[in-house]
Write a structure and sequence with these properties.
The chain has 17 helices and 19 strands. By secondary structure, the chain is α/β, with parallel strands linked by helices. The chain has a domain of 85 residues. Strands 2, 3, 4, 7, 8, 11, 12, 15, 16 and 19 form a ten-stranded mixed beta sheet that branches. α6 packs across α7 and α14 runs antiparallel to α16.
Length: 530
């Protein structure tokens, strides 16, 4: 199929495309990617300790923390939290059984679990530990409002009613609210949502000397008002308790980052009314939101990766160490850029810059540089240094789903450090699969980023995206199969051309909640009194 835009789109289609903030040329380029998908990434080898991943010795911890603190007090840091995800995945197993016809019994779940049904085992574990969840008291209260008792419902195995009170809007409504607004942790006399835990974190490592703590959440448009109302409810509590003033902003994923869906023959997928179907372009679209911030140094962390207070000190410690390392590296990069811009182009100096690029930044320089004139070499090195910088915490691989740190070879043969998702790799290639499976570390999304250049001007972060690092996935709509295009992931292809440093961080700093039962892990439960 090689149709022109005029043959593919009607005037109404073109109006719809432009209403999304897209051009016909952009949509045609997206369709071309479905027809001829970009090649898989080529893994060279995993990043490991001493080969792509740095271990910061204990004697440097205080030095880096001391470097971090004055910059924090100066107000250089803020937090950026992607928080638009709904809790749908968290409660997927509950929703599955709630939607099935007929009653649910524990015996039925036990039998299904014994046959290998993981969802049944998940629901059984959930029900047997229901009182351990931070939201149990709220559940108990909404059930009581209907004149019922949660313990009686459980005792009489009216389990579908229990699930209904958890999932439906006339109960807790967890089937369709943001994950950020679900209570994760229980404290004496109150609970905290993931959103509140991020507010507490912000007070402890981004607040400046005046007590201003800047934090930006990306949220879904339909939930933005709910977030704003919730913030106004909890803001005075934490500002008083922690002695800070929150500067909180919200943004939504831009419609102009949506991508067109196609059918299995790569033709534009059409809804029953004939309109085109556009889908959100995935978290990679958030590079636009990050680019729009008036930011300097930015911590990025997923909404569900939070810990209760008794485990937070280790998180704070490592945030400060990573932030200090970023400032140290940024200082050296900016110093070299300033020197080159002032005309420092001696052979000895440029050789020093090359050593810094290769040994400290892990940037592989091409062989042909030795034949360049000094002016040309200086220009090349300036381009290599004048980029956004990210320091990424990496934890030891413990089998969590997601990406990891690898050395990747691009189409020009150049090798660089990248965070790679399994969908970007040809797992049918035995060599590539072997490299992926030898990975020792996992990406917990624990980044701190420098997004201004050596003159203090904001980078246009869109210039450093690898546009070919897209994902094509198969979905369905109204019972029909379709193909969807996800933009380069925020910490994958969207940051492919950043200066990248990987640092090992302790596993205790990584506490994700992908399913509701993850909240039963020891890390998310109140500490046991001795």
């Amino acid at each position: 199929m090689n149709l022109s835009p005029q043959e593919m789109f009607t005037e109404e289609d073109i109006r719809q495309i432009e209403e999304h903030g897209l051009t016909v040329e952009q949509v045609m380029d997206q369709i071309q990617k479905f027809m001829k998908p970009p090649p898989f990434l080529r893994l060279e080898r995993p990043c490991t300790i001493g080969d792509g991943i740095t271990v910061i010795p204990e004697e440097r911890h205080q030095t880096l923390t001391d470097l971090f603190e004055p910059n924090r007090l100066e107000g250089r840091f803020m937090k950026f939290v992607p928080a638009s995800g709904a809790a749908t995945r968290m409660f997927k197993a509950l929703q599955k059984f709630y939607n099935q016809p007929g009653p649910i019994t524990k015996e039925m779940l036990k039998q299904a679990a014994s046959r290998g049904d993981k969802d049944a085992a998940h629901l059984l574990e959930f029900l047997e530990n229901l009182e351990k969840f931070a939201f149990f008291d709220q559940l108990k209260a909404v059930v009581a409002q209907k004149g019922l008792d949660i313990h009686e419902l459980l005792k009489k195995e009216r389990l579908k009613e229990v699930l209904g009170f958890i999932l439906n809007p006339d109960g807790l409504g967890y089937g369709n609210i943001p994950k950020a607004l679900i209570p994760f942790h229980r404290y004496n006399g109150h609970t905290r949502t993931a959103f509140e835990e991020h507010l507490v974190e912000a007070a402890n490592y981004v607040a400046d000397a005046k007590g201003n703590a800047r934090i930006h959440f990306t949220v879904a448009l339909e939930h933005k008002k709910r977030f704003q109302e919730f913030l106004e409810t909890v803001r005075p509590i934490y500002e008083k308790e922690l002695g800070v003033r929150y500067v909180v902003d919200f943004s939504i994923q831009k419609p102009s980052t949506d991508t067109i869906a196609v059918d299995m023959e790569n033709r534009p997928f059409r809804l029953p009314d004939g309109r085109l179907l556009f889908r959100p372009g995935g978290h990679g679209a958030l590079i636009e939101n990050l680019n729009d911030l008036n930011a300097d140094l930015v911590f990025i962390k997923n909404i569900d990766n939070v810990a209760p207070d008794h485990l937070k000190p280790e998180t704070y410690k490592w945030k400060k160490i990573l932030g200090g390392l970023l400032i140290e590296v940024e200082g050296k990069v900016h110093s070299y850029l300033s020197s080159i811009s002032r005309g420092e182009k001696t052979e000895v100096f440029l050789q020093q810059v090359m050593i810094f690029l290769e040994e400290e930044l892990g940037i592989h320089l091409p062989d042909h540089l030795s034949g360049l004139k000094l002016d040309d070499l200086a220009d090349y090195l300036f381009g290599q240094l004048n980029r956004p910088i990210r320091v990424c915490g990496m934890v030891k691989n413990v089998g969590e789903p997601g990406g990891g740190p690898f050395w990747v070879k691009d189409k020009s043969g150049r090798i660089s450090r990248q965070i790679v998702e399994v969908a970007q790799i040809n797992m049918e290639d035995p060599d590539q699969r072997s490299i992926f499976e030898r990975s020792t570390h996992f990406n917990p999304v624990d980044l701190v980023c420098s997004v201004r250049d050596w003159e203090g001007k904001p980078f246009d972060l869109r210039r450093f995206v690898d546009p070919d690092a897209v994902f094509i996935t198969q979905k369905s709509k109204d019972g029909k199969d379709l193909k969807a295009l996800e933009l380069p992931g925020l910490w994958n292809g969207a940051m492919a051309h950043w200066i990248t440093i990987f640092v090992e961080v302790p596993l205790i700093t990584f506490n994700p909640v992908k399913t509701v039962n993850a909240l039963l892990r020891r890390e998310h439960q109140p500490p046991i009194a001795l």
